[in-house]
Amino acid sequence: MMDAVTGLSGSGPAYVFIMVEALADGAVAAGLPRDKAMALAAQTVAGAARMIFESSEDGSITHPAVLKDKVASPAGTTINGIAELETSGVRGALIRAVRASAKRSEELG
Questions:
Q1: Rounded distance between C-alpha atoms, residue 4 and residue 72, angstroms
Q2: Which pLDDT does position 59 carry in this prediction?
Q3: What is the C-alpha R_g of the chain?
Q4: Which of 5, 34, 69, 81 gives 20 to 30 Å between its CA and that of 44?
Q5: Angle of CA points 14, 28, 98, to nearest 5°
Q6: pLDDT of 53
């Protein structure tokens, strides 16, 4: 189990850093200045994580899919972006990254 924890919580911050950097790069490509793009990307990730912990009325963790569905309106900007992420295999890449890190942790003992 500790190898899985290492794969997720030990290596996961680096994956999130790559996501923040990529989000900021996309915003720069769309016209935002780099400093504003980086700040907004980091705030977006921090806010999304906070919502997972704080969105339920009973204090439990809210499943990210529930929150995703709340912000993705039909034919809107968010669902179009999500479709691009799914086409690009982002979800599968993150799953494989955690599994690869866990496997390497196991190999290292």
A1: 31
A2: 87
A3: 16
A4: 5
A5: 20
A6: 95
Both structure tokens of 64: 């990210």
Tokens of 3: 């190898």
pLDDT at 78: 98
Long-range contacts: 42-45, Cβ < 8 Å, 24+?
45/16, 45/19, 45/20
The three state secondary structure string of 39-96 is HHHHHHHHHHHHHHHHCCCCCCCCCHHHHHHHHCCCCCHHHHHHHHHHHHCHHHHHHH
Considering only CA atoms, which of 42, 40, 44, 50 is closest in space to residue 17? Answer: 42
Q: State the Cα–Cα distance between residues 23 and 59, nearest whole angstrom.
A: 29
Task: Give pLDDT < 70 ranges for the chain.
Answer: none
